[in-house]
Specification:
The protein is built from 13 helices and 17 strands. The chain is α+β, with helices and mostly antiparallel strands. Helix 1 packs across helix 5. It binds ligand EPS. Residues 10, 47, 49-50, 54, 82, 118, 122-124, 127, 310, 332-334 line the site of ligand EPS.
Length: 396
């Protein structure tokens, strides 16, 4: 069983992730993890904290020797540079900000200084998840799986991909990903990217924030991860949970689900075909999952992020000290974090897929996992189905 815990506060000394259950033998190099941490920090629309104060670098303090996991829990530590700038006794915050966890934290934990709530509820915590997700990506990479993301929409500006999500194969997804990696807003459509940046600039000057939509995907995922036999083993549900747990993400879609909802049933399915002696599928409307199980096609999800709740413009609230109306307190914030959220979603998707891999193929050692995978992949991967059985000539 693979487990992940994160700890740490936004302005505390550090963020920590403890990862347990990774097989021994996975290559771990801090610069690989740091690369994803840097990707999470960038993206047009980020604020001063991300771009000028922090420079996230991970320290791997347990569970790795000689550049490989040992099977022991891995501890990942990311220092917060802003810790050094904090006053020793900061003033209490008594007015909750709408949209944040502030009020919920008071109602749940009885905390009356909203600063205490926001310290842990802050999206800063996602740095720890990204470091852990980079470990999960290493495990997936051993199985030939790759995870990526790109931005589809910022505010009301949408990207033109030249076709719907259900028509993107491995090659198209890889091309969109590499175009996004070179773009300031992580959008593969250059003309939309320009308009998205203008929308972010407009929001910044108006004291506003903007949300958007991103796509997160995984290619080369072994078929047969997840299960249809019990509700809590269905991988689409687990992936949606992982992505929806990202701060400000309010909607997750598997494949082009909301488009498919309007289609006739015959067009909504991905045909199963016998092509050149191999099993093949038509479209990918299912987003790589049928019955909550990976089917060998790319796993594709789309997620909606609300505009960030810290806005410079006036937002009404109540001061709990006085009981009077007040403006929500504001210090600084990102104007847009959609590109960063895509990177965090990669970590969550990688994590959930790694959990499913370990669940299916064991977790003590990587070589044994790979051997277990090769043992089944001759009979259950699309394209590798023994032709006789697949043509139904065995009488089974
Ligand atoms: C965040 C508020 C801001 C963001 C932060 C998330 O931090 P601060 O309150 O220090 O200005 O910059 O995000 C990060 C620092 C990060 O690394 O993601 C919040 O309230 O969620």
């Amino acid at each position: 069983m693979l487990r992940l815990l994160t700890a740490g506060e936004s302005h505390g000394p550090d963020l920590v992730a403890i990862v347990e259950g990774l097989p021994a033998g996975i290559r771990v190099e801090a610069p690989t993890l740091d690369r994803d941490l840097a990707r999470r920090q960038t993206g047009y629309g980020r604020g001063a904290r991300s771009t000028r104060i922090e420079r996230d670098l991970v320290e791997v303090t347990s569970g790795v020797r000689g550049g490989r996991t040992t099977g022991a829990p891995v501890t990942l530590r990311i220092p917060n540079r802003d810790f050094a700038n904090q006053p020793s006794n900061p003033a209490r915050l008594t007015a909750p900000r709408p949209g944040h966890a502030d009020l919920a934290g008071r109602m749940k934990y009885g905390i009356d200084d909203f600063r205490t709530v926001r310290e842990r509820a802050s999206a800063r915590e996602t740095a720890a998840r990204v470091a852990a997700g980079a470990l999960a990506k290493e495990l997936l990479g051993s199985f030939g799986a790759r995870v990526g993301s790109f931005v589809l929409q910022i505010a009301d500006v949408g990207a033109n991909l030249g076709g719907g999500l259900g028509h993107l194969d491995e090659g198209a997804l890889a091309r969109l990903f590499s175009a996004a990696e070179a773009d300031p807003v992580r959008c593969p459509d250059p003309s939309a990217s320009e308009r998205m940046r203008a929308a972010i600039d407009g929001a910044r000057s108006g004291g506003e924030t903007v949300g958007g939509v991103f796509c997160v995907f995984a290619t080369g995922v072994p078929a047969g991860l997840g299960s249809y036999v019990q509700w809590d083993r269905k991988l689409d549900g687990l992936l949606a949970r992982g992505v929806c747990s990202i701060p400000a993400v309010k909607g997750v879609e598997v494949g082009p689900a909301f488009e498919v909802a309007a289609m006739p049933g015959t067009r909504a399915q991905d045909s199963i075909e016998w092509r050149d002696g191999r099993l093949a599928r038509g479209t990918n409307m299912a987003g790589g999952l049928e019955g909550g199980v990976t089917n060998g096609r790319p796993v594709v999800l789309r997620a909606a992020m609300k505009p960030l709740s810290s806005v410079r413009a006036r937002v009404p609230t109540v001061d709990f000290l006085t009981g009077h109306a007040a403006d929500a307190p504001y210090v600084r914030s990102d104007v847009c974090a959609v590109p960063a959220a895509g990177v965090v979603a990669e970590a969550m998707v990688a994590w959930v897929l790694a959990e499913a891999l370990v669940d299916r193929f064991g977790s003590d050692r990587l070589d044994a996992m790979l051997a277990a995978w090769h043992a089944v992949s001759s009979s259950d991967l699309p394209g590798d189905v023994p032709p006789v059985a697949a043509r139904g000539e065995t009488g089974q």
